[in-house]
Amino acid sequence: MIEVRGLHFSYPGGEFRLDIPSFDVGPGEKLAVIGPSGSGKTTLLNLVAGIVTPARGTVRVADVEVSALGDALRRAFRIRQIGFVFQDFELLDYLNVLDNILHPYRITSALRLTASVRERARSLAERMGIGDKLQRHANDLSQGEKQRVAICRALLPEPRLLLADEATGNLDPRNKDVILDLLFDSADAHGATLLAVTHDHELLPRFDRVVDFADYRSPATT
To answer: What is the pLDDT of residue 221?
Structure first.
């Protein structure tokens, strides 16, 4: 599902540099990425999603070389194929919970908003424990509630690839298990791959494989 080869990435004017000779995630695999802050874990997710592109090397997702696509094609591919749970949620404060969950369907013709999609959104919200908050605005929610809205939005299009950046980071232990169950169940139901960044080592035994990302970060050189 994911194939990275010979990748080099750095931020302009910064000291961060990421070098990945080879990185693979198989179809249907559930892989956790760990490592210290600043090691490039979130950058990896952004590269896989095509939010940023490498200076050298290739990133392929579902047999598509995402790193070679132009901005518009990368965005369309991401909306159709990838569900991304962002660490900072990226909710829109002026929208209520339901409209935040449905938002991907309103910004592209690649997804079609139907009655069944609306029903699936409500069902996801119920399973997340936020079914009674659909009319609230995002800025009226707790951090944990915002996290659950972001996960519902990522799962709604039933993507082939789920990217999760600290998806359980703002949740209590009971809700962590509920959220992870939902992510795993959704991946299993649709044959999706899950790539998750986490600092929570208690969750690691549930994944198929764990990668320590510290080895991929190297200091920038002049």
So the answer is: 37
Which pLDDT value is given to residue 220? 45
How many CB atoms are located within 10 Å of the residue 84 CB?
Answer: 22
Sign of the four-CA dihedral 26, 30, 36, 42: positive
Residue with tokens 């000779």: 21
- In angstroms, the CA 43 to CA 214 distance is 13
| This prediction's pTM | 0.89
Torsion of CA 2, 150, 206, 212, to 10 degrees: 50
What domains sit in the chain, N to C, each tagged with a CATH number? Answer: 2-219 (3.40.50.300)
